[in-house]
Amino acid sequence: MINLNFILPEIFISLSIMFLLLLGVFKKNSSDIVHNLSVVSLIITGVLIYNNSSNQNISLFNGGFVVDQLSSFMKILTILGGAFVLSISTKYLKIFKIFLIEYPVLILSSILGMMVMISSNDLMVFYIGLELQSLALYVLASFNRDQLKSSESGLKYFVLSALSSGLLLYGCSLIYGFSGSTNFDVIGDTMSASHYGLTFGIVFILVGLAFKISAVPFHMWAPDVYEGSPTVVTLFFAIVPKVAALTVFIRFLYIPFVNMIEQWQPILIFLSIASMIFGAIAAIGQNNLKRLIAYSSIGHMGYALAGLSTGSNEGIQGSIVYITIYLFMNLAFFCCLLMLKRNDEYFETVDDLSGLSKNHPILSLSLLVILFSLAGIPPLAGFFAKFYVFKAVIEQSMYFLAIVGLLSTVIAAFYYLKIIKVIYFDGEKESYDNDHNIWLKMSLTFSTLLILLYFIFPSQLVEIVSRINIL
Amino acid sequence: MNFPILSSLILLPLIGSLFLLFSKDKNSNTGKYVALFTSFVNFLISLYLWYQFDPTTSSFQFVEDREWLKGFVNYKVGVDGISILFIILTSLITPLCIISVNNTVKYRLRDFLIAILIMECLMIGVFCSLDLVIFYLFFEAGLIPMFLIIGIWGGTRRVYSAFKFFLYTLLGSVLMLIAIISIYWISGTTDVTQLYEIGIDTKYQNLLWLAFFSSFAVKTPMWPVHTWLPDAHVEAPTAGSVLLAAILLKMAGYGFIRFSLGLFPVASELFTPLVYVLSLIAIVYTSLVALMQEDMKKLIAYSSVAHMGFVTLGIFTITQQGIEGSIVQMISHGLVSAALFLCVGVVYDRMHSRLIATYGGLVSVMPKYSILFMLFTLAALGLPGTSGFIGEFLILMGAFKDNFLVAVIASLGVIFGAAYMLWLYRRVVFGEVINKDLLKMPDLDNSEKFILWCLAIPVLFFGFYPEPIINTIEISVKDLIEMYNFNLNMYMPEVKIND
Fold it and tell me: What distance lies between CA A66 and its chain's CA centroid?
């Protein structure tokens, strides 16, 4: 029974989901309360995780569930992302008249699923977590059900995601068939000779995971779903599930299959290079900012995968630093997007940003910082993210990957510059509303300052991440 | 010397720009005075730095070493004889730019001043950083304010030029980033002073040299990657052109001396012919191109490429005279090209045309302007008695020592230089006043006079008496060459075996 202490955060969040659901059902007009309570319960969960984090690796349920530095860090990141999304989304939801109790409850349940994924050390546990988060995400994507695009994106996401889950499950069964276990540690121990079957299993699972983080060539869903979903849900899509999927990537590749690195490394390098180049080139032609950020996030996942493909602790840590900074950059970008509102109508194309700097100097300055950071120009946080990844990549003498990666940042810089051009060099349009939610303003200020001033204390984050040693 | 004088040089403009950022009024003159005050104080500090500087040693002075990226990169700054002059040049040019905005920047003055001050901070950072990563950080960060300066306050084709400038430079620099990280894994440090001692394994030097070269060649700019420069210059506002020509281009020359020669002697020796050829093409070809220009700013931009060709030529002669000459030439070109762009800016503000054909006969309309313009024209073509002469003369001396043919071809460039500069001057200043609008043009006002004289005095002073510059750089250059030759002798046998 003592063991249950370590899954207290998961227990707490499940109980709060049930409680909030009941509260919402039985109390009329309780959306506000449920919303606020959900943020509070996320914060409490975060505190619980922080208290639980210890230096030793604790494994529960016959080794199917682990609590270690990696899981604590990634869970806190997930919860941070979720809390930010919940706190800035109220106004948007109210305007679209979808301010319902289901929204926070769904977000909480998908976060619960991700927490299970992050801690999973067993194919079955991992799959349960994955399905829990996916189911919640399907509904979230079509949350604005009266809008055609939103329903369409939900359906599209559901069909494609179900397909990829099927592939993933097939991979799990192959691995179970050839190794005799679903537990990562056991698979790692028993795997004497590398069977072709195992390789197939790895490939199938990698396909499923690549789909979840929208790496090329499994990215097709991302632009449509990002564009169709309500903006606040897009934000959630863009940051939170990627953290969880990346963690699974790390665990799955480095615990059972670290010895088969020559089998999966080329796959990862391919995914990484394809995502970097495709993300950079495809984003150039986009006018819808949500679509654009979808392609940009495809590119960014390429960089995170580049770190994972190195097969070293530095690479893993580089990827974790990358995803952390990526989370804040995207959060800041979407905060700006949510501020483009005029008379209860949201604007989301590049042209709508035209001449923004004349009417909204501070908002444009934040966008400037965010976009240059996304492009990876020093001294902003995005540069350090890339820097750590490429430091690890070059340590392994993977020069080709490094050169392709950095050259694609130049291509990517072009479309970020294009947005900056529209904001700063083009003629002005009507000004936007200024009556923003205090939480939205605070989130934007916080994340922008974090990006801007990261260079003053660049080693704090790295120091925390450097405690995560998988190998 | 415990006071962090270099950090204060870097931070002061940043503090000034923060002040501006939080000031309420966007266009009034208060902001200008704040900016002017901070940059002027910075200039005084840099002069004090020169006064305190000990020219009898080549070791780095005023060094500050702080932990930054734990166990990996330290924030390390310091100056030696090579870098100190560039810092002074930067802090001299910046206040002059700020004075010049009076007539040139019509809108969003405050933002412009913020951009200029941030630029100053970054440029000083480039010249005093003693760690490759810190250097890269400052080097790249400069793209952001410059992109905005060209893009927001530039001319009609500003967007195209700003993009070209940004992407060209970024493309060159990312390879340098790869090289810097590789150096860390090869040698275990990115600290320049330590790298000077340890040296870098010869088998990697060639590739690393090329990666650094790709960045510096774009920034210099060397032929054939110089095409961004004329566009950027033509479209940038006057103050932007001045910063670009006077200081940004010098980052690359400085980088060649400090990093290419200092870190990769074997590769530098190997690639010297390449640099010679590119420099000679730059000198001859761009001089000829400059002859044919109809746009004054474009002409001066091409002349900058030619002058920087001399600089790279001088650096890679790897002789005392050549390198000293390059540094003098860079300082001199910093002053002269800044002045020439300001001169163009003066008439552009009055006529809103940069075409040479618009003008003619200015000598009778604007006599004071004509005198100063004459002085800078002569300095640009390297007339004895101006600082331009000292630089070119030393470079050619170094070149003759190393390779006769190269020196002869480079000397041709001097003649072409005289041709296009004098022809420009003749067409703009002499002749009949054909365009009647010119008659309404007022002569220089006080602020313009002040700026141009501030540049003219050092040009003349160092032309007659270059001792202060030469004294400052002499020992540092000597030790650099000694270290270069020492490393070369140590590694050369291996290279021969590989051959």
Answer: 21
| ipTM computed for the complex | 0.90
* A58 DSSP β-pair partners: A67
SS3 category, B78:
strand
Please check whether residue A396 is in contact with residue A267, taking contact to mean a CB–CB distance below 8 angstroms: no
State yes or no: cis peptide before A104, omega within 30 of 0: no
Domain residue ranges of chain B, discontinuous segments joined by +: 5-498
Segment holding B400, helix H or strand E: helix B387-402
Report if residue A31 sits inside a domain.
yes
Mutate to test the interface with A, among B178, B201, B207, B218 (most CBs of A within 10 A): B178
Three-class SS of residue B361?
coil
Domain enclosing residue A298, as ranges: 2-465
The count of domains in chain A is 1
Give the type of residue at A137: L
Selected for mutation to probe chain B from A397, A407, A410 (highest B CB count within 10 Å) is A410
State the amino acid at position A189 in one-letter form: D
**Contacts A372 to B, Cβ<8 Å:** 144
C-alpha B177/C-alpha B198 separation (Å) is 20
Query: What backbone phi and psi angles, to 5 degrees, belong to A122?
Result: -150, 140
**Chain A contact present for B167, CB below 8 A:** yes
Determine, yes or no, domain membership for A320. Answer: yes
In a domain, A471, yes or no: no
Q: What is the pLDDT of residues B1-59, one digit of tens each?
A: 568 888 888 888 888 888 888 877 666 677 888 888 898 999 999 999 888 888 888 88
Tell me the pLDDT band of A171, cut-offs 50, 70 and 90: very high
How many other C-beta atoms are found inside a 10 Å radius of the C-beta of residue A293?
26
With beta carbons less than 8 A apart as the criterion, state whether B119 and B95 touch.
no
Which one of A260-264, A301-305, A430-434 scores highest in mean pLDDT? A301-305
- Half-sphere exposure (CA, 13 Å, Cβ side) for B133? 22
Task: Name beta bridge partners: A341.
Answer: A346
The dihedral through the CA atoms of B106, B221, B319, B254 has a sign that is: positive
From residue A278, how far is each of A215, A271, A272, A377, B364 by CA, in Å? 10, 10, 10, 20, 61
Is B54 in a helix, a strand, or coil? Answer: coil
Instruction: Say whether the peptide bond before residue A266 is cis (omega within 30 degrees of 0).
Output: no
Residues B127 and B90: beta-carbon distance below 8 Å: yes
Tell me how far apart the alpha carbons of residues A425 and A411 are, in angstroms, rounded to a whole number. 20
Of A372, A410, A417, the CB nearest to B174: A410
Query: What pairing do the DSSP bridges indicate for beta strands A341-342 and A65-67?
Result: unpaired
Q: Is the dihedral of CA B448, B452, B454, B457 positive or negative?
A: negative
Contact B69 A458 (CB under 8 A): yes
Distance in angstroms (rounded) separating the CA atoms of residues B28 and B102: 11
Q: What's the Cα-to-Cα distance from A376 to each of A76, A373, A416, B141, B226, rounded to whole Å?
A: 25, 5, 10, 10, 24
- Give the tokens for residue A401: 């990957």
Say whether residue B144 is in contact with chain A using an 8 A CB cutoff.
Answer: yes
Indicate the pairing of strand A345-346 with strand A58-60: unpaired
> What CA–CA distances, in Å, run from A289 to A161, A297, B357?
23, 12, 46
B174 by Cβ neighbours in 10 Å (0-12 / 13-18 / 19+) ranks as: buried
Q: What is the pLDDT of residues A39-49, one digit of tens each?
A: 999 999 999 88
- Write out the DSSP string of B299-355: HHHHHHHHHHHHHHHHHHHTSHHHHHHHHHHHHHHHHHHHHHHHHHHHHHHHH---B
Contact B89, B250 (CB under 8 A): yes
pTM of the entire predicted model: 0.92
Q: Residue B322 — left, alpha, or beta (φ > 0 → left; ψ -120 to 50 → alpha)? A: alpha
What's the rounded Cα separation, in Å, for the pair B142 and A372?
A: 12
A175 within domain boundaries = yes
Contact call for residues A376 and A368 (beta carbons, < 8 A): no
Report the alpha-carbon distance of residue A114 to residue A126 in Å, rounded: 9
